[in-house]
Amino acid sequence: MKRALKSCLEAMKNAENYQAWADAAKEYDRLSGNDEWKEDDASAHYDYKMIRLRYNELRTAREREDVNQLVFYINEGLHGNLGRIANTALYDHCFFGTKHLVTEYLQEVCDCLEWICNTEFTNFSFVQKLEFFERTASAFGQTGLMLSGGAALGLFHLGVLKAMYDEDLLPSVVSGSSAGSIMAAVLGTHTDDELDEIFDPEYLYVEAFRTVGWRGTLKGQGVLDPAQLELCLERNVKDLTFEEAFNRTGRRINIPVSPSDPHQESRLLNAMTSPHVLVRKASLASCAIPYVYPPVMLWAKNIDGEKCPFIPSRQWVDGSIKNDLPAQRLARLYGVNHTIVSQTNPHIVPFISRKRREKNMMGYLVDMVVSNTRYNVSQALELLTDRISSQQLALLLDKAHSVVNQSYVGDINIVPPRNPGNVLKIIANAKPSDVAEYIRVGEEATYPKLELIRNSTVISNTIQSCLDKLKVEEERELKEYSLNHASA
Asked: What is the pTM of this model?
């Protein structure tokens, strides 16, 4: 038995794709007895009695074809974490998946939603149906993917994106800061038909770093050549505005940038807040680490489609300094209430747990000490920033305050293995073999999270799919009405 389990672990470690990983993980769960745990509804990690009750109510209403009762049940209790079914601890016991009751409940909800969408009713009109799905989509929310900074280590994001794309699990809302902004920009300017190319280790031009020396710092510019970074962006990111990128791909990409002067708030650039800003320039600004790259002026297209400076009086720097993971802004703009984070920042990764466990008393005490220390450092930096007369020093303290004060994790966190040697790769240009390794490591880190991601997004994806279908039908009916009215 031990040899068979070890063989499964080896197969998971050496899996060339997710299907191979999943097959090995399922076999491990079968041999180890984890499948028995999945079949038993009971667990302290969620309210299994409530979920069983809701499952029975929904299934009974659908089998009776009682649409009004079904809509009532969904309006009454549809929630992404109902009974704590989104608790990540439910995915720690097994290598693949979780309780069968959880997946059965999620599937039943989706079956109910699709049945309502695809069925014509005499007592539930098309208008009522459309209003129901619009209200449900707004109330339920959706998932956003956030890609952190990390310089060259940000190539890890490629593996994360590939693993999610291969399983059709990429959210439509994606943000990226610093190195993550390049990955988001590449993703957001390429259509689905073109995405296979970007996951080819030899396709992307990744020579982003060229040293100019300390003379650049003395001139107030930086130690790395921004022209080389801009060339990297020109080779990989299509020359589009945020609005053009959205119209081309349907992906809602977001890039945070920070003002180069203190006491100014960061901005989240996207097709809603800054539709005419050029994506390449936004990513260049988000990568402009102070004293490493010089601040950047954003560019946009004017009403005639000509390129021109955007807010010429202001320059911008690294988005990860002020807002590495802009969860609150994504919530306001798109109703994002569930986040997946791919985190590669070298000063953050060592402190993120690879596996969620129930905390003991010592764990809570450590959290309390860390929280208090963080608060005190934050207050001290804020006080110093307000009292320093030197603008450069005030800017530096303001950025340090932002780094200390923000959160670097989401609901689901994907991080690379701890490797002290990664520090030496931060500003190293990667060869195709290095890119292939980053992709491999990113995929391996994502595979164990995919069933959690699938279960966490299946309802919101189903709601959106139904709503899109109904919108198309509404548009068709309006056209038919217009044509009939015109001919009459």
From this structure: 0.86
